[in-house]
Write a structure and sequence with these properties.
about 120 residues, alpha+beta, two-stranded antiparallel ribbon, 5 strands, about 45% helix
């Protein structure tokens, strides 16, 4: 009976370790895509400052990747040799500008990305 419990504990422990390993691997895989999203947010903020874009309270703007690339505030839309497309939504919430980047790549798409 003790051998049966030990076997089950070994099996369950192995499954848990496998799931943890898979989760950490996925997180590492997505790291470069998240870095590209952060680069896009920084580029959008620079674009707004450089081009004197003013947003009223509650107003938002959608900046496509091609605008950021052409204005030289973003250098590339690649992550892990994966060419991506995307945009940044910037909204004035009254006290600050909120920015959220959305990208679509062959192997990754930001949650809530809209074409």
């Amino acid at each position: 009976m003790k051998k049966m419990y030990a076997a089950w504990i070994f099996i369950i422990g192995g499954l848990l370790l496998s799931l943890i390993f898979i989760g950490l691997n996925i997180k590492q895989e997505n790291k470069q895509y998240k870095a590209l999203e952060n680069d896009m947010i920084e580029a959008a903020q620079k674009y707004i400052i450089d081009n004197y874009v003013e947003l009223s309270n509650g107003e938002s703007i959608k900046l496509q990747d091609d605008i950021l690339l052409r204005s030289n505030v973003l250098s590339s839309m690649k992550a892990k040799d994966d060419e991506c497309t995307g945009y940044v939504k910037v909204k004035n919430n009254g006290s600050e500008l909120e920015s959220q980047a959305y990208i679509k790549c062959k192997n990754y798409t930001t949650k809530d990305y809209v074409e």
